[in-house]
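Bench notes, bay 3.
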Amino acid sequence: MHTGSRLAILVAAISTLATACGTGSQVQVPAAVPEARWLGISFYDPGAQKVVIYGGQSLSLPTRQLSDMWSWDGKSWTTVPLPAGAEMPTERARGLSTYDPDHKRVLLLGGIAGRKAFDFLREVWSWAGGRWTRLPDAPTSASIDGGAMAYDSSRHQLVVVNMPPTFRWGVDDARGISLETWLNDDSGWHLSSPAHKLPFAPESMVFDRTGNRILATRLTTVGGTEIWSWDGRDWSLAAEQVPAASRVLVDGGDPGVLALESGDPLANAGEPRRVFRLQGGHWVLAGPPTTGPGTVLSAVYDTPRHEIVTFSDIWQSTSRSTQLTSDDTWTWTLAAGWSRPLPCGKGNLDGVR
């Protein structure tokens, strides 16, 4: 399900939100965890050797955009200290992010700050050395609504796909729209003119070192998933197609590109979430199929600990009458599959288990 569709489902059911844990167990709450959220950014910080989450939209009522940062060291969450008086992005959600290995920094592009719908930003920020730095604005506004971003390590370029500027959110039909492809390197921004364009709607993008290309998943009009490939000049439908529900791509380090079954806010608790690995030109099941989060949110690969980390969850009650959320942390490893390393989260409304 595309992120915009997931948001519509959540908004429709927000009046019936309840605190819950995926298994319904009553256990002690961790002393400090981030507030439950989605639509933020997550990344691995190689300098700190920790997973970091920033911003997003709260899953508590009333919903609001966040600006806090937390890091995960494999055992617990802690707030990220920022230098006094340091410049940093305002609270925001729905931004794009990726790691730039050439300049050893994480890049944040666009998103939305404030209540005005579809008022997406052109701001570009970098995170390196424990500090945010404002970079020159991009020539196009961007968000995860119709956009995606990855860094092409082979060609030393940032690749951004986005809706054309003539598209009117809330007015035009996005089906059948072809996306613009923007490239950014040390010489600046360039609008590419590929023979073929990536169709709406992109879900995630990642650089595939083995294939020397960027892979992008997109949601099709019939609810399926396609994988497209960017070779630096043109987009094409990839020869390797992943099972339909696996829309979240993650750079898994040594295991290569991983595709995660994304789930959705209408999923029931206790469903298996398979992970696939691109190997020898085929997607193969990676690790044992185990119970995972209802909705895979903020997935990022923790390199030294060889695990995928996700934070927060959304699912539906067994009676299908209530939308449930939590601040659970989930991890996945090739050997063990999915697990929750922390006690079940405290939920998102009244904080009482």
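Next record in the batch:
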Amino acid sequence: MSLLSAEWTGRAPGRVNLIGEHVDYLGGIVLPAAVDRFTTVRGRPAPQWCLESAVPGGLPYAKALGDELEAAPQCLEVSSEVPPGSGISSSAALLVAIAAGLRPDLSGEEAALACQRAEQRATGVQVGVMDQFAAALGRCGHALLLDSASLRYRLVPFPEELVIAVLDSGVQRSLADTPYNQRRAEAEAGMPKRRRHVESEIDRVHQFVAALESAEVGRLGALLKASHLSLRDDFEVSTPEVDAIVERAWDAPGCLGARLMGGGFGGSILALVEAGSESPFREAMGGIPVMLCQTADGPFSSTEEPLSPRAPQELLGPEDGSPRWPR
């Protein structure tokens, strides 16, 4: 039950997925990071659920989470730096912010799973848990290595000398109107090209983590580029417009690498940029919208809590994250 009977405030960040695309629904490992764009929710008990926001559509999410948390109706005021459709998961930021305000006593894992169920209930889409885990448990200066099958996770240091750039491809789409569901079904069925992407992408996640932990920043760019080429050629979820922006970013000053991020067929592009090169990078991208981010704390992160309630830090090595293929 909700512990609150007075006004409350909750705040949660957006997230990026550094690497590990189209592997979560097969039980693979992913490497998201919370970023310093936040959604803040102020709430108070009310006769019925209501939500005030500059962005429409949030009320079904709030009511669904209220049902999950067995919370009394609340009137919510939302302000957000997480633009919808920007690729940094505005829905997870909203839900985790509400959970943090209503139930600060929850563990990060409990909050993330409640928010995942709420989004599934609100949308009818069987979303994964990566976005909610990153928004709830992300930590400044780190990425979050998450095994989508077991929900084991641990923190991975992220270097201060890198800036996370999120680029808007300008290609707007609803995944329901693209071959996304077909690609997912092909992957779940073990189609050879899709399988090759999944297996190579999981290997790239492990290599990316190893490079971060050994401070070999120079290796990250090649892994991002290889990830994009695999998404383009093996998973076939890119578009010519996205490819052109990604290749332009590869050649931009200070850019280590870039790749398509998210479901594909448009949407957002992730790039890693050397700190100090932000202005020349932005100039090189011309009129393409660029959002520059740093890592951030989620509301359920704590320097004193265990890195994972399900597994100690030494877990999630190269043997973890194997996909579940049909027999």
